[in-house]
Each structure stands twice: as C-alpha cells, then as structure tokens.
Specification:
Chain A: InterPro entries: EboA_dom. The complex is a heterodimer of chains A (215) and B (291). With 215 residues, chain A is mainly α. Helix content of chain A is 66%, strand content 0%. In chain A, helix 1 runs parallel beside helix 3 and helix 3 packs across helix 5. Classes of the chains: A mainly alpha (215), B alpha/beta (291).
Chain lengths: 215, 291
C-alpha cells in the first residue's frame, strides 16, 4: 500500500487489528471505540524505516482504509473522528489522508482537516498535516504559509512533503524576509531556511547583499 | 522528592507554574474535568474542554517535563443545567481515550435529583469502561453529602478500592476510611485542608489509601502544596519512603487501576529517564527507586 509503512505486530495485536478491520467494514460506528484503543492494543513505538510514523498511526490508518465510505461522505466521517480525537488520533487521521486519496477517492474532502491542524500550535499535528496529501491539495498561498509556520514553530522541513515541486520564488522570498527579521533582532536563523532561499538566486542575492558575511 | 499530583486543574495555570512544579519535584499529574468560574451553556463547550484536556494540556505539560493524564465527567454543579444533559451521551466516546485514567469529578454539589441521576449514570459508565472514579465531596453540608455519596457508591456495586473520595477533612475522613475507598485531601492556602492538619491526619490514620493533592485551579490555590506537605512530613519525623508512598506510590497505584497510566516519559531531576519498572497491569509505571 503506498503512503502506509509496513509494520510488524505481536500475534495478539495482529489478531485485534484483523477483527477490528472486519468490524469497521461492517459498521463505521464501531470506530468510535476501536480508533482510540489502537495504541493500547497494538503499541505506540516508532516504525523502523518510516521517520515520523508510529505503530498506532499505521494501525489507525488501516482501520480508516476499511471504512465503507468514499469521497465527500468519507471526508465528513474523517472530520468527525478528527474533531473528537486526542492528539494521537488526530495525527493518525492526518497521516491517513494520502492513502485514502488513493484508495477511497477522498479528493479534496480532507483539506478542511489539514487546515484545522495548521491552525493549532501543536507541532506533532502540524508535522502530520504536512504530508503528501497537503502537498497535493493545498492552494499555493496556504502551502507557503504552512511551510513558514513549520520553520517558525520548529517542525523540521525534512518532514514536509512537496518542497521540491512547490517551493516557488514567493516562498523563497517569505523565507528570506523571515531570515532578515531574525538577523535584525540579533536572533539565530533556523538552518532549514537556507536551502529554500538558495533555490531562487535572485532572492539569495538580495539577502546576501543585506547580511554580507553574517551567515 | 518525586511528586504525582493526583488532582490539579492545569488549564487554569500558567507555564510559570509548570516550571515551579517541575523544580519542586512534580513529574506527573492528573487533571480532572470540572466546572470553571463561568457556567457553560452548551454541550459543545464541554467537547472543546475535553479535547483540551486530551490534546493541548498534555502537550503543554510535556514541554516542562511533566506527564499529564486526565479524568472525564459531567461535574455535579453543571449536571443541574438541563441544557448540558447531552454531555452524558458524549462521555462514552471520551472514556475510550488513552490518557483518561478515571471517571471524574463526579459527586454532589447542592445534592439535587439531577446530581443523583448524573452520579448514578457515571458510576455505571465507570464499571462499563473499566475505569476508577474520582468523587468530589460538596463544599457545603460536606458530612451529609459525603455520607450520601458513600451510600450511592455502595449501591453501584463498584469495588471501593476503585473509588477515590476527595476533599476530605477531619469530619469526613473516618467514614471514608471505613468504606474501603481511597481518601483524597486537597491542601489549600485557606480553605479545605492545610499542611499542618494534613500531617496530623497522616499520623492518626496512617498512609494507607491516602492521596494528597493541591487541587489548584482558577481560585486562590497553590500548585506547590504537595511539596509543602512532603516537607512538613519530613519535619514531623516521617521518612523519605513515607513521603514517597503518599506523594508518588499511592496515586500511581490508584490510577494504574485504569490500565492506561503511562509514566514512561517521567525523568529524574537531572533530565535522565528514571529507570522504568516495565509494564504493570497494562500501565507503563515507574516502580523503581525514587528520583
């Protein structure tokens, strides 16, 4: 399955997941109790080879893939689940969006969830929001501000999808302005700023002229 | 001194408090759902409040090295507002969450029929979800309210060791001790219990099933009262192990009955993780030497 890392569960965990998937397939409302229980039943450790992902997130995404819903209706179910979720559940809904776009015709129906997460101050949610789904579906202006917010709150850009194709000159300008603001205040500039600025030589030339050798 | 504050409303406190609590030895706490200074008027504001207890507040606590769990319930005062009865229907969804370690605060405020119904329904939900219960005792007519609370708990069929009866004083401690429930004491600057009376009660009743909390909230209160009790216990001749029993092991034992207590993030004062004792009845609890 693309966008969902492989995990190895204990025998007990695997059995629980298998039966939970069957129950969700038969009745979406079963998720209300099963979705929160995923971490307790299957573990919460990091997933080897998939930076940022945890086991409970993968398990929760598998449950969401079993939902017998598509498109806008699926988007509504996801938003409801996200709204009533704790931080770990919310992160899992955010991480599921790319897989559900592929498998369940989610389309743009998951965008309101990404926008909600980007309004929070919780770096775990902001990081989970900035996966391939956000890269594919956020409008330019929103995407640029989301990347700037990541730099601002300390989410490493290594976790942000789509920079290769979506870092335009306007985003580089915003980053350069941010760097300038930090330098004028005598504060450190986050290292993640520079690779984006360097993609756009005109922006780089301007900021270099301003800061000289300080960098 | 490592401290687990089993009852504190961090939503009403500042980051300065978190810093001072960490410096005083607080490494874990439980934030019960309760009323705010301003009465709420719709179930939606409760959903937002519960989401905060499960989302933003544990995140904030973690940035200061403190592990945050919560309890979820419709409190007795607001159970009297018919517009809020829908909160009871919302509870099963929240009681399924990872960091919810009890149903609470439930109990009595003015001791009304609506409070009776809310209490009975929530005791049944606790049994259904396998969660212990944190019971608030009323500020007014406390002894009568506590007696009635114990009767309702007995009728619910919940084992007394899964029930914590809080805000006790000299008038109510004996009946709760006799019931087999856990005894909670809220140490406040000038109401409820104070530090010296608390030490006297510990001398008279022993340490068994006793929890001490600051119950700090938006009123006049002090999040460092747990530490003050620990210091006063040492000054009165209790050992460090006694202090650790009251301020750490007892709250851990009570909330671990949920099977959801996760103390794997607890660190010693030098910032290194405390050696974890591994899984204990589904909890990741620390059972090693005190930090």
């Amino acid at each position: 399955m693309t966008h969902v890392p492989e995990i190895t569960l204990t025998e007990e965990g695997a059995r629980w997941l298998e039966s939970a998937v069957e129950r969700v397939r038969a009745d979406a409302r079963a998720l209300d109790a099963l979705f929160p229980a995923a971490g307790r039943m299957c573990g919460r450790g990091p997933v080897p080879g998939a930076p940022g992902w945890t086991v409970d997130e993968v398990v929760r995404v598998r449950l969401l893939l079993a939902l017998p819903r598509k498109g806008a209706e699926l988007g509504e179910t996801l938003f409801e689940l996200y709204s009533h979720g704790d931080a770990a559940e919310r992160a899992a809904v955010l991480r599921s969006l790319a897989a559900l776009a592929d498998a369940s015709d989610l389309g743009e129906a998951g965008v309101p969830i990404v926008r909600d997460a980007l309004r929070t101050s919780d770096t775990r949610l902001i990081q989970a929001a900035m996966g391939p789904y956000a890269a594919a579906n956020l409008p330019d202006h929103t995407y640029r501000h989301a990347v700037l917010k990541c730099v601002f709150v300390g989410v490493p850009l290594a976790f942000v999808s789509g920079l290769d194709t979506r870092c335009d000159e306007e985003l580089a300008r915003m980053m350069a302005d941010y760097a300038e603001e930090r330098l004028l205040a005598g504060r450190e500039v986050p290292a993640d700023v520079w690779p984006l600025v360097e993609r756009h030589p005109t922006v780089l030339t301007r900021i270099n002229a301003l800061i000289g050798e300080e960098r | 001194m490592r401290i687990f504050d089993p009852h504190i409303h961090m939503t009403s406190r500042t980051t300065d408090d978190y810093e001072r609590m960490y410096a005083a030895g607080v490494r874990a706490l439980v934030e019960p759902a309760f009323w705010l200074g301003q009465p709420r008027t719709s179930a939606g504001t409760f959903a937002d409040y519960f989401d905060g207890l499960l989302g933003w507040e544990p995140y904030r606590a973690s940035q200061f090295g403190i592990v945050h769990h919560c309890t979820i319930a419709l409190n007795p005062k607001e159970a009297n507002d018919p517009r809020l009865h829908a909160v009871l229907d919302m509870l099963p969804r929240y009681l399924a969450k990872d960091r919810v370690v009890a149903v609470g605060e439930v109990g009595y405020d003015e001791i009304s029929p609506a409070e009776d119904e809310a209490l009975t329904r929530q005791l049944a939900l606790a049994a259904e979800h396998g969660l212990p219960v944190l019971v608030h005792t009323p500020h007014r007519d406390k002894a009568a309210g506590t007696r009635r609370t114990l009767d309702v708990v007995r009728e619910s069929g919940l084992p007394p060791e899964r029930v914590l009866v809080d805000h006790l004083n000299e008038m109510t401690v004996a009946m709760v001790a006799e019931s087999g429930c856990w005894m909670g004491f809220s140490v406040y600057p000038d109401t409820k219990m104070d530090v010296d009376r608390m030490v006297t009660i510990l001398k008279e009743h022993g340490l068994d099933r006793v929890l001490v909390n600051s119950a700090a909230d938006w009123g006049r209160s002090d999040p460092l009262k747990t530490r003050a009790v620990g210091d006063a216990m040492l000054a009165a001749g209790f050992s460090e192990a006694d202090v650790d029993t009251v301020l750490w092991s007892n709250p851990v034992a009570f909330y671990a009955q949920s099977g959801r207590l996760d103390l794997s993030g607890v660190t010693a004062s030098d910032g290194d993780p405390i050696t974890a004792g591994g899984d204990y009845a589904g909890n990741t609890v620390l059972r090693g030497t005190p930090a």
